[in-house]
């Protein structure tokens, strides 16, 4: 029992040190990234560290079989949760890409399959657009698949896309390309 208490004290200090290094590294590696992105990565790292500490603590107490069973059961639960939350995970992954995309930013006028308007906020799972005075919230996975930035010269005085509102994926259709 004393060995377990000592282990937890040492592990808490080590987790604290590792998290400071991770947070410092994230700030240095991604200085222009959204704090939401850095916080998400740090939280995932912290979760894995503490889970490892908990399993090791059980082993230190002599409960190796329980630690192994708990690790295996957690894997199956994680698989089920991942399947059940696949849409949410897809939105979060797409959100990371959108947060890092220099062509997709707050204030841009964007056309997606679900909405066309001015981006007012980009979060990890959802993006908000202002559309004719209303706020429209769209999951990031729906945006990341197919969106197009509308340049200011395409937008008429009525605020409508100059090409009739056609869709697209942001790729050049080759109409202006020279042979």
TrEMBL record:
UniProt keyword annotations, A-Z: Membrane, Transmembrane, Transmembrane helix
InterPro entries: LSM_dom_sf (IPR010920), MscS_archaea/bacteria_type (IPR045275), MscS_beta-dom_sf (IPR023408), MscS_channel_2nd (IPR006685)
Subcellular location(s) per record: Membrane
Transmembrane segments: 6-26, 38-60, 66-84
Acidic residues compositional bias, start-end: 170-179
Entries under Pfam families matching the protein: MS_channel_2nd
Chain residue ranges for the region called Disordered: 152-179
Mechanosensitive ion channel MscS domain residues: 87-143
Superkingdom of the organism of origin: Archaea
GO cellular component: membrane
The protein, known as: Mechanosensitive ion channel domain-containing protein
Protein source organism: Halobium palmae
Source organism phylogeny: Archaea, Methanobacteriati, Methanobacteriota, Stenosarchaea group, Halobacteria
């Amino acid at each position: 029992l004393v060995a377990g208490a000592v282990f937890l004290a040492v592990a808490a200090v080590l987790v604290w040190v590792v998290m400071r290094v991770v947070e410092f590294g994230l700030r240095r590696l991604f200085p222009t990234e959204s704090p939401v992105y850095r916080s998400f990565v740090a939280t995932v790292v912290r979760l894995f560290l503490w889970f490892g500490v908990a399993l090791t603590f059980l082993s230190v107490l002599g409960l190796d079989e329980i630690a192994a069973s708990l690790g295996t059961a957690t894997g199956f639960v994680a698989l089920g949760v991942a399947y059940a939350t696949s849409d949410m995970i897809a939105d979060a992954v797409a959100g990371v890409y959108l947060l890092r995309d220099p062509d997709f930013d707050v204030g841009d006028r964007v056309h997606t399959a679900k909405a066309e308007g001015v981006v007012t906020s980009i979060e990890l799972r959802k993006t908000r657009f202002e559309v004719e005075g209303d706020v429209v919230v769209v999951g990031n996975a729906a945006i990341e698949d197919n969106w197009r930035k509308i340049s200011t010269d395409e937008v008429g005085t009525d605020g409508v896309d100059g090409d009739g509102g056609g869709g697209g994926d942001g790729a050049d259709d080759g109409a202006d390309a020279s042979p």
